[in-house]
Amino acid sequence: MSSVVELATKNGKPRHRGKVKVPHVTLAHGGGGKAMHDLIDDIFVEMFDSEGQAPLEDQARLGISSLAALGDRLAFTTDSYVVKPLDFPGGNIGKLAICGTVNDLAVGGAIPLYLSCSVIIEEGLPVDTLRMVARTMAETARDAGVKVVTGDTKVVERGACDKLFINTAGVGVIREGVDLGVDKCQPGDAILVNGLLGDHGAAILNARGDMQLSTPIESDCASLHGLIDALLSAVPRTRFLRDATRGGLATVLNEIAEASQVGIEIYEDRTPIRSEVKGFCEILGLDPLYLANEGKIVCVVPAEDAETALATLKSHPLGKEAAKIGEVNDHRAGRVVMQTVFGGRRIVDMLVGEQLPRIC
């Protein structure tokens, strides 16, 4: 089999695209020579192929006029992904990297447009595993309407990282008039979530083999910008949005209470958590309020817009289980309290340490 194929560039001149011939990644694939170029061509250029990659340069070049036509501010974010295991029910590290970065842009009111992808690969990783992750990233990006336009590849010795780490950065445009912030919440505001909480954290822990559930739990990993766009269109006065990833719902609520200097009260019987996740947490001594999510947002809206916001969330496929879980108040600034199903109250503090490491 030939080791190269022809790739037509924008100026019409052909460029040869390399092919990987070995089953596992070696240090040579990070050495800057032909092996590295073959890996980049075969895995990443092959999957992420777009006009922005031809000819290949050390940077993506984005038209300013096309960005300005969409809004009046740029949003720029970055995140790294070290999840263990790489593949889990409902997704893999590649899907997680795209969805996580898209969501980080969207919760600021931005239209996600462009992403970067940088990978740190452990020597010995099967090439097929890397190809699977890149394929998933490309498919997820296409479904989300974003482009992966630049990136980097590094290979490290065995034991220097755990199989594969990914860093993604994202650029989006914030629409004119959208002004969301963790410090903008006011007493009387309603707090909503778009569905069942804790699924991602439970799915990862179960995938590690720590528990063998009779009913497998899938990660909720999803790109939420379509849902968020619908919400902002229906409720333009939305105060705040945040995806409840590491630290879960409890951490986001504490960040709101501290930044806005307000109190927050939520209700246990209104907080949507899958029965399997509740049982899972009871067995392991975990609190589902702190479990990571990868497809859930916390929304704060004015009280008079709460019903409209809830109906909008429920009308979207990613918000069918949406619920109003509490309110902002002026009782004890900086404090989050839950009304329990037994009629009492308990303080929901910021998480100290990490319930589950390597969750995203």
Quick summary:
Helix content is 29%, strand content 25%. It is α+β, with helices and mostly antiparallel strands and 360 residues long. Helix 1 runs parallel beside helix 4 (127-144) and helix 3 (93-106) runs parallel beside helix 4 (127-144).
General description of the model:
The chain has 360 residues and is of the alpha+beta class. The chain has 2 domains: 23-53 and 63-174, PurM-like, N-terminal domain (60s Ribosomal Protein L30, Chain: A, 2-Layer Sandwich); 190-347, Phosphoribosyl-aminoimidazole Synthetase, Chain A, domain 2. The protein is 29% helix and 25% strand. The strands form 4 sheets. Strands 10-12-9-13-11-14-15 form a 7-stranded mixed beta sheet, with helices on both faces. The longest helix has 18 residues, at 127-144. The two termini are 38 Å apart. 45% of the residues are buried.
Keywords:
360 residues, alpha+beta, 60s Ribosomal Protein L30, Chain: A, Phosphoribosyl-aminoimidazole Synthetase, Chain A, domain 2, seven-stranded mixed sheet, 15 strands, 29% helix
Layout: helices, strands, pairs:
Layout: E1 4-8, E2 14-18, H1 34-48, H2 64-68, E3 73-81, E4 87-88, E5 91-92, H3 93-106, E6 110-122, H4 127-144, E7 147-156, E8 164-174, E9 190-193, H5 199-207, H6 225-234, E10 240-243, H7 248-260, E11 263-267, H8 275-284, E12 297-301, H9 306-314, E13 323-329, E14 336-339, E15 345-347
Parallel strand pairs: 6-7, 11-14
Antiparallel strand pairs: 1-2, 3-8, 4-5, 6-8, 9-12, 9-13, 10-12, 11-13, 14-15
